[in-house]
Design goal:
By secondary structure, the protein is mainly alpha-helical. It is built from ten helices and three strands.
Length: 308
Amino acid sequence: MDFLTPPNNVTEFVLLGLTQNPHLQKILFIVFLFIFLFTVLANLLIVITISLSPTLSAPMYFFLTHLSFLDASLSSVTTPKLTIDLLYQRKIISWGGCLTQLFMGHFLATSEVIVLTVMAYDRYVAICKPLHYMTIMQQGLCQLLVVLAWIGGILHATVQIIFTVDLTFCGPNVIEHFMCDFFSLLELACSDTYRLGMVVAINSGGICLLILFMLLISYTVILSSLKSHGSEGRRKALSTCGSHFTVVVLHFVPCIFTYARPVATYPEDKLVTVFFAILTPMSNPIIYTVRNTEVKNAIRSLLKRRVP
């Protein structure tokens, strides 16, 4: 089956966007353009800084490099299309564009979730098994875990696309969103999608709930083990874990709200998507640089070397 071949007579979808207010659209265009540029540049700065800094060679920073790259990529899936559409009255997306946006969004978001889980495991080993940390978190294992994150993202996104291409559309092609969302497509389909919606809820929402539950248990264990650490060790561990836990909450709460439910669309979905796909990738570099002295010092050192 050719995935890019439109089902039935559907060749494009009409997106209603965030708002129909022309004045507000102009304001949002400037806001989202700034957010997109800041997100991409800030995350790429972290990638370059960690790659060039000899002091940031720990596995945690290796994973942070991939997380920042995923953030920059995830922002590029949604924000440019949303920003450009704010300049037009009629907002459309082709069937192929819809599938591409759906695939890339799920691929990158799932890879991020797995990388965040790997980073939590890294912190667990560093704090609870410090004497065995370098033995366990060897370079080969770190690279393997990142490869598994990318493979997991591809597999999950492929499943979503397989579900999508089997849908049939025979009615309106108007999506009450600013992007191609799987639940929005399910509501437009003219076939019975109840079982498919439940599968998606288990596949996406269920996985988010399970991983979040596992992360909460790991952080409970980490916090309990900090009692045996000195005050300086506790402070540094809490700072690192606090940054990571904040990012975890920013990722998993919107995921659970969006997918851990029956098939339905709500007005709040747009705001949740803006928060997850646009604001969260922007906030991650801020969280990790503001609370991490080593990263801040490495960025200052890099800028001093590059800027005369």
